Automatic annotation (TrEMBL), chain A:
Organism annotation: Mesorhizobium plurifarium
Gene name of the encoded protein: livH
GO MF, one example: L-leucine transmembrane transporter activity
Name of the featured protein: Leucine/isoleucine/valine transporter subunit membrane component of ABC superfamily
Alphabetical list of Pfam families matching this protein: BPD_transp_2
UniProt key word Calcium: no
Subcellular location(s) per record: Cell membrane
Alphabetized UniProt keyword annotations: Amino-acid transport, Cell inner membrane, Cell membrane, Membrane, Transmembrane, Transmembrane helix, Transport
Automatic annotation (TrEMBL), chain B:
CDD domains: TM_PBP1_LivM_like
A single cellular component GO annotation: plasma membrane
Location of the protein in the cell: Cell membrane
Its membrane topology: Multi-pass membrane protein
Name of protein: Inner-membrane translocator
GO molecular function terms listed in the Swiss-Prot or TrEMBL record: branched-chain amino acid transmembrane transporter activity
Organism name: Mesorhizobium plurifarium
Keyword Glycoprotein included in the entry's annotation: no
Pfam families given in the database record: BPD_transp_2
Length: 303, 319, 254
C-alpha cells in the first residue's frame, strides 16, 4: 500500500466511521436503558435522511443549497425524527415492556419493517438525489485531497457525541438515565420518572441517528429506502466492538469499524464486494473472543 | 395431603395427536390428497408453495417457538439446501436423492459455525448475527462462480422415484405434501420427547433450566441445527422443483416471511404454525395488485399480531 | 469425609467483597442451615455452589470431587440440586412436565431416537414420567399433575420446586428460603417434609432461611453469616448462645 492510499483510506475510514459511531451511539444508549436491541434504529437513520432531504429541498429555495440549508435540514430532521423515536417507543415498545424477551424482539423487528415498508410505499423504491453545493475546496495532504466538507462532517459528529457524553455524565437527566440502566425498579422507587427517562433516551438516540442520516445523505448525495438495513447491522457491529451500553465504546467501535472496512476492502484479495462479509466476520470474532467489547463491562446476571 | 398411599397409577404417555383433533386432521389430509384432482394448475401451484412454507415454518418453529431463539437468517439454510442440490446435480452429475444427506450435513455445519459462538450470549445477539449470516450467504452466492453469480444456477436435475420422474406441478405437490407430513410427524415426535421439553424449559426460564441440569447451550444448538436441517431439505426439493435458483430467492424478506408464518398462527404450536404458513403463502396472491405496498402490509400484520394477539391467531388453550 | 466441603471461598462484584474466605462443610445425611441478615451473602454463596457465579478464589468439593467453576448443569448432574428464592417454575408447562425436568440429566435419549420412536426411548420416557409422578406424590401434589404450574397455589408451587429438584436424584439439595411467604400451618408441613427428604431418601439438606424458629427446629448445624464473613458455626444451641450472633443477627431482628 502506498502512503497516499494509506492516507486516503484513513480519511474514508474516519468519515464512514463517524457515521457508524453516531448510529451505534443510539443503539448503545437504548440498549443500556431498556436492554432492547432497537431493530428499528437503522430505519430511523433512513427516516432522518429522508426528512432532511425534504427540509433541504424546501429551505433551499430561500437559503440556497449550501451550508445553511444543510444545517437547517440537520436540526429539523433531528428534532422530528427524535420525536418519531419517542412515538415508536410509546406505541410499540412500552406496551411490551414486561412481555417475554422473544416477543419484544419480534415487536422491534415489526417496528423496523413498518418504517422500512412505509418508506418503500411512499417513495416507490426510487433513489433520491441529495444535491448540495458544498464544493470541493479543501487541503492537500501529500497527493490526497481532503475537502472542508469532510473535515466539518467528522468534526460535527465528534461534537455531537461529545455533547451526548457530557449530557449523560453531567446533567440530572443523564444521571437518571444511568440509574435506570442499572436498576429500573429501584429507580422508580427512588422517584425517577422512568417512562420519561426512557422516552428521552429514545429521543436522543433517534436524533443522533437522524443527524447521521442527514450527513450521510448530503455527503453521498443520495437517499434510498433500503439505506438503513446495512447501516443498522454495521452500527450494531460497531456497538459490539466498542462494548454495548458504553458511550465512548460506541464512538471507538464506530471509528475502528470504519477504518477496518476502509483498509480491509483495499487489500488485494478482499475487494469491495466482500466488504460486508469482512465486517460480519469481525463481528463474529468479537462475539467469540471479546463479547463485552473493548470498553464494555462484564455484567453479572442476577439469579 | 397424603404421605403414604401412592397414587402413581395414571401417567401414560399422551398420544401424538389428541383424539378430538384426529378427526379434523384426517379430514384436512383427505382434502389435501384430493386437491390436485379438482383444482387447476394455478391453485395447485399456490398450494405447493403453501406446503413449502409449512415445512419451512415448522423448521423455524423449532428454533423460535420451541427454544425461544430469534433467527432472522433462516432463509440462508434454505439456500444451503437449494444450492447443494443445484451444484451437485448440475455440475457434478449427482443423483438428486444423494444430495439430500450432503445438504443436511452442510446445514449442520453452517448451524454449528453460526450457533456455537453466539448461543452462549444473550438471545438478542443471535438475532443480529443470524441476520448478518443470512446476508453473507446471499453475498457469497452472488459472488462465487460455482453458484452461478447473480443469475444463479439453471438446469437442475429433476428427481426420479423408482424410474418415475417428477415433472408436473401435481407431482411436486405430492412430493411437498409428503415432506410436510414428515415434518409434522418429526415435530410431534420431538416436541414431547426429552429434548423437546428441554427446549421449552430453556425458553421459559433459562436459569431454572440450567439449575435443574440442562445444558442450555447444547439444547439451543441442537434446536438451531435441527431447524437448519429441515430448511435445507426443503431447499433441496425446492431446487428440484424450480430447476433454476438465484440468490434473490433467499433474501432477508424470505426469512421475514417464514418468521411471520410462525408468529401469525401461534409460536410453538404445530396447528397454529401450519395455519400461519398457509396464510403467508396466500399473502402474495391476495396482494398481487398492491405493488410496493406489500412489505408494509406484511410489516403491519406482524406488528399488529405482536401487540394485540401475542399468542397468534390459533393459540394453545393452555396459554 | 464431608459430602460438601467449602474452603476459603471468595467472591466480589467490582470492588464489593461479597464473600470473604468462607469455609464450612456439610456431612452426608445432615440437615444444615445458613443464616444471616439480609445482604449477608447467603444467596451469593448458593449461586457459587451451584455454578451460577464464578468465585474469585477458594474451592468447593462435592463428595471429594472439585466442582469449583463448573457450569450449573454439570454440578446438578454431579448430584447437587437447588431451589430458587423467588420460585422459578416453568409456569406455562404442566406440573408433571416441571417435575420431569429434574430427570433430564439422568436420561440420555436425543432427537433422533425420538423421531424413530425407538423402544428404548419409549421406555426411558415411561421411566421419566414415573419418576416425575413419584416425586409429585412424595411432596403431596400428585393430583395436580396435569394442571399448569403457574395455576398452583403458592405453597404448592414451593412443593413443586422441591419435587423438581428431588427428581434429579441429588446427593444434596440446597433450599433457598423455602419458608418465605408460607403461613404457620404450611411451615409446619415444610419442616415435616424436610425431615422426610432426609429420612426417607437419604438426601442431605442445606437451607438458607430467615425464619429462626424453623431453622432452630430443623437443623443439626448452623452456619452464620454477616457482611460476607462467617461469624459462627455450630449446633443450634451453641449458635443461639454466641454473643457475636446475638449482636449481628438476633439482636437486630426481634
Amino acid at each position: 500500500m502506498t502512503l497516499d492510499l494509506v492516507i486516503q483510506q484513513l480519511v474514508n475510514g474516519l468519515i464512514v466511521g463517524s457515521f457508524y459511531a453516531l448510529i451505534a451511539l443510539g443503539y448503545s444508549m437504548v440498549f443500556g436503558v431498556i436492554k432492547l436491541l432497537n431493530f428499528a434504529h437503522g430505519d430511523i437513520y433512513m427516516s432522518g435522511a429522508f426528512v432532511g432531504l425534504i427540509v433541504f429541498s424546501f429551505v433551499g429555495v430561500w437559503v440556497g443549497n449550501g451550508w445553511l440549508g444543510v444545517v437547517c435540514a440537520l436540526l429539523v430532521s433531528m428534532l422530528a425524527v427524535g420525536l418519531l423515536g419517542v412515538v415508536i417507543e410509546r406505541f410499540a415498545y412500552r406496551p411490551m415492556r414486561n412481555a417475554p424477551r422473544l416477543s419484544i424482539l419480534i415487536t422491534a423487528l415489526g417496528a423496523s419493517m413498518v418504517l422500512n415498508g412505509s418508506a418503500l410505499a411512499l417513495t416507490g423504491g426510487r433513489h433520491f438525489a441529495f444535491n448540495t453545493d458544498l464544493g470541493f475546496a479543501g487541503l492537500d495532504v501529500s497527493a490526497v485531497h481532503i475537502t472542508y466538507t469532510q473535515i466539518v462532517l467528522v468534526a460535527a459528529s465528534i461534537l455531537l457525541m461529545a455533547g451526548m457524553q457530557a449530557f449523560v455524565s453531567r446533567t440530572m437527566y443523564g444521571k437518571a438515565m444511568r440509574a435506570v440502566s442499572i436498576d429500573m425498579g429501584a429507580s422508580r422507587l427512588m422517584g425517577i420518572d422512568v417512562d420519561r427517562v426512557i422516552a428521552l433516551t429514545f429521543f436522543m438516540g433517534s436524533a443522533l441517528a437522524a443527524g447521521g442520516g442527514v450527513m450521510a445523505g448530503a455527503y453521498y448525495g443520495s437517499v434510498h429506502f433500503f439505506m438503513g438495513f446495512i447501516m443498522g447491522l454495521k452500527a450494531f457491529t460497531a456497538a459490539v466492538i466498542g462494548g454495548i451500553g458504553s458511550v465512548p465504546g460506541a464512538m471507538l467501535g464506530g471509528l475502528l469499524l470504519g477504518l477496518l472496512e476502509a483498509y480491509g476492502s483495499s487489500l488485494p484479495f478482499v475487494g469491495s464486494e466482500w466488504r460486508d462479509v469482512f465486517v460480519f466476520g469481525a463481528l463474529i470474532l468479537f462475539l467469540v473472543f471479546k463479547p463485552t467489547g473493548l470498553l464494555g463491562r462484564s455484567v453479572v446476571e442476577r439469579v | 395431603m397424603s404421605d403414604g398411599a401412592s397414587t402413581l397409577s395414571a401417567a401414560p404417555q399422551p398420544p401424538l395427536v389428541r383424539r378430538s383433533f384426529l378427526l379434523w386432521a384426517l379430514a384436512a389430509l383427505a382434502c389435501a390428497l384430493a386437491l390436485p384432482h379438482f383444482a387447476n394448475a394455478y391453485v395447485t401451484e399456490v398450494a405447493t408453495t403453501a406446503l413449502l412454507y409449512v415445512v419451512l415454518c415448522l423448521g423455524l418453529n423449532i428454533v423460535v417457538g420451541y427454544a425461544g431463539l430469534l433467527d432472522l437468517g433462516y432463509a440462508a439454510f434454505f439456500a444451503v439446501g437449494a444450492y447443494t442440490t443445484g451444484i451437485l446435480t448440475s455440475e457434478f452429475g449427482f443423483n438428486f436423492w444423494l444430495t439430500i444427506p450432503v445438504a443436511m450435513a452442510a446445514a449442520c455445519l453452517a448451524g454449528i459455525i453460526i450457533g456455537a459462538p453466539t448461543l452462549r450470549l444473550r438471545s438478542d445477539y443471535l438475532a443480529i448475527v443470524t441476520l448478518g449470516f443470512g446476508e453473507i450467504v446471499r453475498i457469497i452466492a452472488r459472488n462465487l462462480d460455482i453458484t452461478g453469480g447473480a443469475s444463479g444456477l439453471v438446469g437442475i436435475e429433476r428427481p426420479e422415484i423408482l424410474g418415475f420422474k417428477l415433472m408436473q406441478v401435481q407431482h411436486f405437490y405430492y412430493a411437498f405434501l409428503a415432506l410436510a407430513l414428515l415434518a409434522v410427524f418429526v415435530c410431534l415426535s420431538v416436541e414431547r420427547s426429552r429434548m423437546g421439553r428441554a427446549w421449552f424449559y430453556v425458553r421459559y426460564d433459562e436459569d431454572a433450566a440450567a439449575g435443574i441440569g440442562i445444558n442450555r447451550v447444547s439444547a439451543k444448538l441442537q434446536a438451531y441445527m435441527m431447524g437448519a436441517v429441515i430448511a435445507s431439505v426443503a431447499g433441496c426439493l425446492y431446487a428440484a422443483k424450480m430447476t433454476a435458483i438465484s440468490p434473490e430467492s433467499f433474501t432477508f424478506n424470505q426469512s421475514l416471511l417464514i418468521l411471520l408464518g410462525v408468529v401469525l398462527g401461534g409460536m410453538g404450536r404445530i396447528p397454529g404454525v401450519v395455519l400461519g404458513a398457509i396464510l403467508v403463502a396466500l399473502l402474495p396472491e391476495v396482494l398481487r395488485g398492491a405493488g410496493t405496498y406489500r412489505p408494509l402490509v406484511t410489516a403491519v400484520a406482524l406488528l399488529a399480531i405482536m401487540l394485540f394477539r401475542p399468542n397468534g391467531l390459533w393459540p394453545d388453550k393452555r396459554g | 469425609m464431608a459430602l460438601l466441603e467449602v474452603r476459603d471461598l471468595r467472591l466480589s462484584f467490582g470492588g464489593l467483597k461479597v464473600l470473604q474466605d468462607i469455609s464450612f462443610s456439610v456431612e452426608k445425611g445432615a440437615i444444615n442451615s445458613l443464616i444471616g441478615p439480609n445482604g449477608a451473602g447467603k444467596t451469593s454463596l448458593f449461586n457459587c455452589l451451584t455454578g451460577f457465579y464464578k468465585p474469585k478464589g477458594g474451592s468447593i468439593r462435592l463428595g471429594g470431587r472439585p466442582i469449583t467453576g463448573l457450569p450449573p448443569h454439570r454440578i446438578t448432574a454431579l448430584g447437587l440440586a437447588r431451589t430458587f428464592q423467588n420460585i422459578r417454575l416453568f409456569k406455562e408447562m404442566s406440573v408433571l412436565e416441571n417435575a420431569m425436568s429434574g430427570q433430564h440429566c439422568r436420561s440420555r435419549h436425543g432427537i433422533v431416537s425420538a423421531i424413530l420412536h425407538l423402544p428404548s426411548q419409549r421406555r426411558e420416557e415411561d421411566r421419566i414420567r414415573a419418576a416425575g409422578m413419584r416425586w409429585l406424590d412424595f411432596v403431596g401434589i400428585a393430583e395436580h399433575a396435569h394442571r399448569l404450574a403457574g395455576g398452583l397455589s403458592y405453597g404448592d408451587q414451593r412443593r413443586l420446586e422441591l419435587a423438581r429438584a428431588l427428581a434429579s436424584t441429588p446427593e444434596i439439595i440446597l433450599l433457598d428460603e423455602p419458608a418465605a411467604g408460607l403461613n404457620e400451618r404450611e411451615k409446619l408441613d415444610l419442616v415435616h417434609l424436610i425431615r422426610r427428604i432426609r429420612d426417607e431418601t437419604g438426601v442431605t439438606v442445606l437451607l438458607i432461611e430467615h425464619d429462626m424458629g424453623l431453622v432452630m427446629q430443623v437443623s443439626e448445624k448452623i452456619v452464620v453469616f454477616d457482611y460476607g464473613q462467617k461469624i459462627a458455626d455450630g449446633t443450634p444451641e451453641a449458635v443461639r448462645a454466641d454473643p457475636k450472633v446475638i449482636e449481628a443477627y438476633l439482636g437486630t431482628e426481634d
